[in-house]
Structure formats: C-alpha cells, structure tokens
C-alpha cells in the first residue's frame, strides 16, 4: 500500500506519469480486498464459536465461498504478471527519479527494511500456504462429510497451483524467446557466403522467408547457452552458442561501438531468466549474428579433441562439432574452445544429453504415427 499509494500521489502531481501501475502491481488491490474479506470472515466465525461455545463452527461455507470463488483465480492473475513485473521493475530502477521514489518508500518503518522485490513475491508465497491451511483444518475436523469436502478442496487448490506453475514456466519461456528474437540477427544467404550471387531485383523475394520465425515456437526450449571461441583458419572468433532442444545455433558476437549516454542508458528491457552474461550484453546494445545455418541435433556429431593436439596445435579445452546433411555428408565443421576444462565438459555433456533426448522423442513420435491408434473423444 505504501508503494502503490505513494506512486498514485506522485502521478496525481504529474511525477512518474510514464510508470504503468498495472505492469508493476497488477491486481494487487483486488487481491488485498479478497484476502482481507476471507480473513475477517474466518476470524469472525472463530470469535463467534469462542463466545458461544454451543454454536457450531461453520468453516465449510467460508472455505467453499472463497476457495471456489475468487481467491485462487485472483492469485493466479497476480502470479502470472509477477515475472513481467520484476522485469519491468529492474528497468525502472535504473532511473534516478524512480530510484528516489523507491528509497523514500523503503525507509518507511512499516516496510521493515524490506525492498519492493521482496514484497512483490509475498502473494506467491501466500498461495502456496493455502493447502497447508486446508490440511490443518482437515486434520482437526470431526465430521466425515466436512472432512471429505475439505480434502477435495485442498486437492483442487493444489491442482490450481500446479496449473499455475505450468503457465508461469510457459510465460517465462515465451518472454525469453521474444528477447532472443530481438537479439539474434539472421543474415541473408548472400551476406553469409560471398559465393552466392543474387541480383538486386531478386533479393526482395528471397527476404520474405523470415528465418527469425524459427524462434517463435512456444514449445521450443533453450537448454544451454554461453560464450566459446571458434578456431578459424587465420583467427580466433568470439562466438555465442544457443543449445535448443532440437538444434544448435552458433552466432558471432557483435558489440555496438556507439556509446549511449543520457538518462536512458541501460534501460533496455532484459528478461531476468536469461544468463547474467547475456543480460549485460543486451544492455550494452550488442547482438548475435547467426554464423551458419542451425544444426539439427540428429545431424550433429560431437567429437572430443585429443589432448595430444593441445600441445601440437595450441588447442585448449577444445571439441569439434560436425554438421551432416541427410545423406550423411559433412557440410560444416566447427572447432570450438572453452575457457576451462570444466566448461568444455559441461558443453559436451549438455549437447550429448540434448541429442539423446531428441532422438528418443523422435523415435517415440514415429512409433505413435505407425501404430494408428483408435480415435479418442478426449483429445
């Protein structure tokens, strides 16, 4: 309330007008009202029972009203906005005027030295405690009908939380991929390889098949990412690899040479679930240019570089990635070096695991297709 009301007051006096209250606090006020109503009703029932020892404790009607009503859905709306709110808050904190507002609110003794991110997460923790509350009521219930009802209610709340976790993961993955779409640049084929000549009059028709849509799939997962060094014939190149659950993407790191000053420096929205290395790179307005076509995991051959070659060719922590076409011809080879032996082992194990999982899933899908199962009305 301190943060919300202070921001409302500042905006009424034409300060911080561009700060979006909903993006930061979502339906927090509605959630407060419903939670407070639940709490008051709950304690009023307890109070009435204590003052009149002969009156029955009618918990069932209270629990039914709130847990089958707006309590869990309101929590879900807030929780689904939470990641986005943290994302938005991190960008706003870079601003001097918003920083002053935060500091002023945090100094209020009611905040108990807690910062806004620590307060924003509280409703998420509260939602996970509801099954514990219901379980404790169930343990102490004596009426079998009431006991059965409370147990079914507890299971319903737990299912609601599991569904929410799935939605939050999906949303987090969606935001991550939307960020990657902005950072990863897909060069045209004639820019990538000078052997291909395309007249200007034909370039427009080839541009229309947008490669960037590859990352628009909501079902794709990013398994591992990080910096490596690519050994070329005449130089060592800094590259950034993205290992997805179906292909590997090798990109070339491009830093923006222009220095951005002013109050908007560092205010580029950055997804908090990306690695800190990539987050700082995005804030510097860098981008990753795709070096070669994506390597499907079922066409990727991973080879360890023998330690003998380390001394002969000065290769440290190196491994080889081979890209084969559908006819098992090698069409590309990438000699990569990690900073440490541990980083190399991590990369190799992650790639091997991703290949194994992809091939297993692919075989399962093929077997399902050829089984011709009977149609189900549940699908």
Automatic annotation (TrEMBL):
SMART domains: PH (SM00233), RhoGEF (SM00325)
Database matches in CDD domains: PH_PLEKHG7
Gene Ontology annotations of biological process type: Rho protein signal transduction
Domain spans labelled PH: 221-356
DH domain location: 1-174
One Gene Ontology MF term: guanyl-nucleotide exchange factor activity
Stored InterPro entries: DBL_dom_sf, DH_dom, GDS_CDC24_CS, PH-like_dom_sf, PH_domain, PKHG5/7
Matches recorded under PANTHER family: PLECKSTRIN HOMOLOGY DOMAIN-CONTAINING FAMILY G MEMBER 7
Protein name: Pleckstrin homology domain-containing family G member 7
């Amino acid at each position: 309330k301190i943060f919300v009301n202070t921001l409302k007051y500042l905006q009424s006096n034409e300060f911080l007008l561009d700060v979006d209250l909903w993006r930061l606090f979502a339906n927090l006020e509605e959630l407060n009202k419903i939670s407070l109503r639940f709490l008051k009703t709950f304690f009023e029932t307890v109070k009435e029972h204590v003052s009149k020892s002969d009156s029955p404790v009618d918990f069932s009607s209270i629990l039914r009203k709130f847990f089958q009503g707006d309590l869990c859905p309101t929590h879900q709306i807030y929780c689904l906005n939470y990641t986005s709110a943290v994302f938005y808050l991190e960008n706003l904190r870079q601003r001097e005027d918003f920083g002053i507002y935060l500091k002023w609110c945090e100094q209020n003794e009611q905040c108990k030295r807690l910062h806004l991110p620590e307060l924003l997460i509280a409703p998420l923790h509260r939602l996970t405690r509801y099954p514990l509350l219901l379980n404790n009521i169930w343990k102490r219930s004596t009426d079998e009908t009431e006991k059965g009802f409370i147990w079914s209610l507890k299971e319903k709340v737990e299912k609601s939380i599991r569904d929410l976790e799935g939605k939050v993961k999906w949303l987090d993955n969606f935001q991550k991929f939307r960020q990657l779409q902005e950072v990863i640049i897909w060069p045209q084929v004639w820019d990538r390889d000078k052997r291909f000549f395309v007249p200007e009059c034909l370039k427009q028709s080839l541009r229309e098949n947008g490669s960037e849509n590859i990352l628009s799939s909501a079902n794709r997962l990013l398994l591992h990412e990080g910096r490596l060094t690519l050994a070329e014939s005449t130089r060592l190149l800094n590259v950034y690899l993205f290992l997805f659950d179906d292909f590997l993407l090798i990109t070339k790191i491009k830093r923006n040479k222009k220095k951005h000053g002013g109050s908007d420096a560092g205010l580029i929205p950055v997804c908090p679930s990306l690695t800190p290395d990539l987050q700082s790179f995005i804030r510097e307005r860098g981008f990753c240019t795709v070096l070669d076509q994506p390597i499907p995991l079922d066409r990727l051959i991973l080879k360890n570089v023998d330690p003998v070659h380390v001394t002969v060719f000065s290769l440290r922590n190196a491994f080889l990635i081979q890209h084969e076409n559908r006819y098992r011809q090698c069409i590309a080879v990438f000699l990569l070096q990690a900073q440490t032996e541990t980083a190399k082992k991590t990369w190799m194990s992650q790639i091997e695991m991703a290949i194994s999982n992809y091939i297993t899933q692919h075989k399962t899908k093929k077997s399902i297709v050829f089984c011709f199962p009977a149609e189900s009305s549940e699908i």
